[in-house]
Amino acid sequence: MAPEEPGSTAPAPAGPSPAGTSPAGPSPAGATPPTLLDLSAYLLSRTGKAARSRLADRLARRGLRLWDMAVLAALADFGPHAQRDLVRRLGVDASDMAKVADQLALAGYVERARDAADRRRLSVTVTEAGRALLAELRAEALAVQDEVLAPLSGAERRVLHELLARVHAELPGTP
Prior knowledge:
Radius of gyration: 25 Å
Helix content: 40-55%
């Protein structure tokens, strides 16, 4: 067997490495396991959690939650809804929706009224104040998006968005 030349690397030893090490040496204590980094579902989950947490923190500073923004967006985008229809559209528990609608109404961001034809039906409509708030919250969400996607170019962000929109459109239960 010929001696190794200076500066060359020896072949990696066969078999598993001791825990916490790789053929190149020990891995940092906080390193994500490569097995997980190979899973797109894991990367989507971690990235989504980071973005959601950052947005939730920004909304919390205003005394709001993600559901508040979701309700305002649904009403602004699709018009007035029966409260029970918002429950189905957004996939939120009916009692949670009642609390969100109560808080938004109390703050003047939505109006709720009984349907004249069906007194059991409660209609929810976004107010001008609610539309203005939604515009501010959207700006907050876009700022978080810019933070999270900072490593990507504008073109890469557009491609990522198109791919995620395609995947989202095919998810079971997506309207």
